[in-house]
Design brief:
By secondary structure, the protein is of the alpha+beta class. It is built from seven helices and 13 strands.
C-alpha cells in the first residue's frame, strides 16, 4: 500500500505593482486534487477572459471525466498514460479550442491567448499537462526541479546553445512564446507523469514569479515556511519587492504523512486572492 500522505495546499494571485489588470487565473479543486493555473495574454480584459476560459474548461472536463469514464479523449495520447493524464491532456486541448474559437468569432478578442499548467494528483501519481511559460516545480530533499519546459523563444535558444541562461534572463524577448493556448486551432500539449513521495512540495506558478525571484530563493522560501498559503504569500511579496512588473500567481502543495489514507484532504492551507481571478475549494 505504501506510505499514506495528505495534501495541504494554498494559492495566491496578485496584480503586481505595474499592471492595471490581473490576467492570471487559478483554481484549486479539492475533491479532485486538481490544481490549474493560467496566465492570459491579449491586453485590456482579453487576457483575463482567456485565462478564465482556460481554467474553467480544464476544470469542467476533469469533473465530467470523473463521473463519465467514457468522456472523449483527444490529442496525442500515450497508451501507457493513466486515465487522469489522458483526460487532463484532453482538457487542455479543449481549452485551446475554446479560446481559439472565441477569438475567431469575436474580433475584440483577436490575439488573446493563455498559458496553462495543470496538476492532477491521484494517490502517489502526479499528472501534469502544460502549454506556455507558466511553470511547475517539485521540491524534494532540498532540491528544486522544474518539471515543465518553457515554450518561449529565449528558452528554446538556451536549449540550442544560442543563449546562456544569464543572457536569456536579460533578453527583451522573454515575452515571446512559441506555444500558447488560442494561437492556433490545434496545439501541442506537453504531458507527463511522476511518482510522489511524502514531504514533496509542488509549486505551479506564473512567470511573474520566476522572472523576479530566483530558484534558490523559491526553494529557500518553501523550506523555511511549511504552511502552503503563507509560503505562497511570501513568494508573492518577494516578487513585489523586486518591482512586481507582472501579475504573480503561486500555488503550493505540501505532501505530509498521514495514517488515514492516500492523499486525503485533511488540512487546508491559507488561500488568499490579492488581485483577482483566483479560487479554491470545490467545483
Amino acid at each position: 500500500m505504501g506510505v499514506r500522505v495528505r495534501i495541504a495546499s494554498g494559492g495566491v494571485t496578485d496584480v503586481g505593482r505595474v499592471r492595471a489588470n490581473n490576467e492570471d487565473c487559478y483554481k484549486i479543486v479539492e475533491p479532485l486534487n486538481l490544481f490549474v493555473l493560467s496566465d492570459g495574454m491579449g491586453g485590456e480584459a482579453h487576457g483575463e477572459i482567456a485565462s478564465a476560459m482556460a481554467v474553467e474548461t480544464v476544470v469542467k472536463h476533469c469533473l465530467d471525466a470523473e463521473t463519465n469514464p467514457a468522456a472523449q479523449v483527444i490529442g496525442a495520447i500515450q497508451p501507457n498514460w493513466s486515465a487522469r493524464t489522458k483526460h487532463l491532456t484532453t482538457a487542455v486541448h479543449l481549452a485551446n479550442r475554446a479560446i481559439f474559437k472565441s477569438a475567431e468569432k469575436n474580433p475584440d478578442h483577436h490575439g488573446m491567448g493563455a498559458t496553462l499548467t495543470a496538476v492532477w494528483i491521484d494517490g502517489p501519481k502526479l499528472s501534469i499537462a502544460h502549454v506556455g511559460d507558466s511553470r511547475a516545480y517539485l521540491l524534494r530533499s532540498g532540491s528544486l526541479l522544474q518539471l515543465t519546459r518553457d515554450h518561449s523563444l529565449v528558452a528554446e535558444q538556451v536549449r540550442r546553445g544560442i543563449l546562456t541562461t544569464a543572457e536569456a534572463e536579460e533578453s527583451n524577448m522573454q515575452n515571446v512564446l512559441l506555444r500558447a493556448l488560442g494561437a492556433q486551432s490545434v496545439i501541442e500539449v506537453d504531458a507527463e507523469e511522476h511518482t510522489l513521495f511524502p514531504r514533496d512540495v509542488l509549486l505551479p506558478c506564473s512567470d511573474g514569479l520566476t522572472r523576479t525571484v530566483t530558484e534558490p530563493e523559491i526553494a529557500g522560501t518553501l523550506q523555511a515556511e511549511t504552511d502552503p498559503g503563507r509560503a505562497a504569500e511570501k513568494l508573492i511579496a518577494l516578487a513585489n519587492e523586486r518591482g512586481g512588473p507582472d501579475n504573480i500567481t503561486v500555488v503550493t502543495m505540501r505532501l505530509e504523512k498521514d495514517s488515514k489514507g492516500w492523499f486525503s484532504w485533511l488540512r487546508r492551507g491559507t488561500r488568499k486572492i490579492l488581485g483577482s481571478n483566483g479560487s479554491a475549494g470545490g467545483n
